[in-house]
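Why run this: before we spend reagent on co-expression, it is cheaper to look at a predicted model of the complex and decide which construct boundaries make sense. The entries below are exactly what would go into the expression plan.
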Amino acid sequence: MNLLRRLGLALFAPVLAIVVALLISGVVISLIGQNPFDAVRVMFDFGDTPGQQTQGIVVVLNRAVPLFLAGLAVSVAFRMGLFNIGVEGQYRLATIMAAAVGAAVALPGPLHVLLIIVVAMAVGAIWAGIVAVLKVTRGVSEVISSIMLNFIALGIASFLLTGPLRGSPEGAQIITTTPIPESGWFPGLNGLLGALGLAQPRTQLYGFLVVAVVAGIVVSVLIKRTRFGFDLRASGLSPSAATASGVDARGMVIKTMLISGAIAGLIGLPDLLGDQHSYGTEFTAGLGFLGIAVALLGRNSPLGIAFGALLFGFLDRAAIPLQFADIPASVVTIIQGTIVLSVVVANEVSRRLTRRSAERGNAVAPPTAGDGSTGGGQGPDGGPPPDDGPGSGTGPGLRTATGAGGRSDHREGAGA
Amino acid sequence: MKAAALLLAGGMALSACASDETSGGTASSGSAGGSASAAALKVGLAYDTGGRGDNSFNDSAYLGMENAVNELGGELRDLTPNEDASNRPELLSQLAEQGFNPVIAVGFAYGDIIGDVASEFPDTTFAIVDSSGVGADGQPLGAGNVTGLQFAAEQGSFLAGVAAALKSTANHVGFVGGVETPLIQSFQAGFAAGAEAAKPGITVDVKYISPAGDFSGFADPARGQIVAQGIFDAGADIVYHAAGASGGGVFTAAAASGKRAIGVDSDQYETVDDPAQKAVIMTSMLKRVDNAVQGFITDFSEGSVTGGSDIVNDLSTEGVGLSYTGGFIDDIKGQIDEYATQITSGAITVPTAP
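The model came back. Tokens follow.
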């Protein structure tokens, strides 16, 4: 019963959000003189021939992969109450550096790809690390510094692209880096589609989908099943309580931002390794900001983010068929906007309901509320700390208490 | 309660955007002309970032397509890319797949993908505005079925530079570029050369809103205004912009400081609504995308498109030029025409890079 109730409350917010968003979008579509039901039918129409239908699926998935990685990067920081707005700059800088290194070396296939991935993750992590260092040593709000670092990252990327890393000839309209040789390409998954009995699409399904799934699982395990994850969630729910129980707050900020940045470094790679093979002036921008919306939509749980990314990918694909049906593409932007807005509102409503039911049920219900605005882990997996946490979680947490505390004290002493 | 208010406000704001959209959007659809006799001309067009309603580049392309279809009969379909323009290949592929022919891509940003799409649909005729139908290696793109519709923007900008220099009392003019790309640099190069030719030693301030790779500079009037204000404060009295929708900010800055500005692409004296902004637009450098698109569709319907080549619209074909609406530069028309003749005759070669 209790479990059922918790599940109901967890699903309540997203379902409410999507229903409200659909209602508002329906009203908007009617207001511009179109039939909302037609619009929905068009959005789900993936084409007439099997080839077109698989192509539709591939387009949705290829769009969802980078969005998922972006959402994942944002969510890791979110989980501990850090607002990493710098994902945009982190992935742009990481992608151009990865493209440059990938083009400069010649290695056998898998090693080449691996090197590019490692470079991208390292650059993303370092750029996010600056934010963390500024925060723990100087108390600079990560919101401010990460926004500012976005501008610096874009500036550096432009400088590198038009200067030392330029691969395009003089006078080219679109400036790109030197293309990565074929050994550094990530193979597509169209063979897999064929094995599943689907018709071949026009374009390749990004093989990076596999990396994204692995990244999602790793993050999920890291946050739910390790001591680090417990410390991270504890810091997100209540920084003071976490510090009091011996979590090294400064160390956590640095580690979390490094992980967030490393994941951010992957965002540009599906396009880079699967399609474009170089970074250029036309490289997809803005994925870092979309990632914030996707993380919000997925309530910071990897599974939820996957769902959010697929939803955004689906809506994005729908923009073209909608225009063929005389409905402006901005309808899609409107739907995306209303969904995000409704999610924020629904999270708040659900938070209040949870609190009320907790008050009514007194000691039984877990104190999962968190603060909905920053999205502190209140997803379906937000409960564990009080439930199954004690055995595995607090034990090691307490054991490190003195060590970590001593370390941070020492550092404070040195700073002063 | 708070939540309900937020929802309501959000909904209202969104519906406001949406109703704005319809005024321009609905006209873009359906078939014009409707003559059943036509051999079913189906023209597809994919816009550059921003899509319909920019009062400039994209709208000009639409106008050309609309005129052609009105004249020749048939059907038209225009598609706007998504916000980050990552679905460009899909736009072109789907138009071709749905049987639209010719398919016109508006903007050089399609340059790196149109070749792939064109090879996939060898029976469809493609055109690309502001880019080439021939690859960097000298080979025709796709299956030789891409035609480049190019503009000698530097020639028109040269005349804008001449007009600015002749009209400047401070002996100091300025240029605001949207994004520092080679295309916009050709506007800058032409403008600076023209100003220097008309008044040797004149100061030309050059500022870009965003660096290469960051396309926000074409759609950010607020930053356009700040950048232009900086140039005016430094002493310039006429600023030429090649910054798309950010140009509105340049006009605002000119109006605020009592100086003047030069528009771009369309005759912006006609397209701008605000009378205060209108008053500062001395002239506009016209880039007749509409003529080029209409001409291409007409050629296609007559079967005279060869593909794998470029059509360059310059001063000699009146593909670029200056507007005289408002009568601000009527008195120097003679001098401007003289420079134009020297350019078309080859006596003056206008640089394309600064």
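Residues 2-25 of chain B form the longest helix (24 residues). Chain B touches chain A through 53 residues (CB under 8 Å). Bring this page to Monday's planning discussion.
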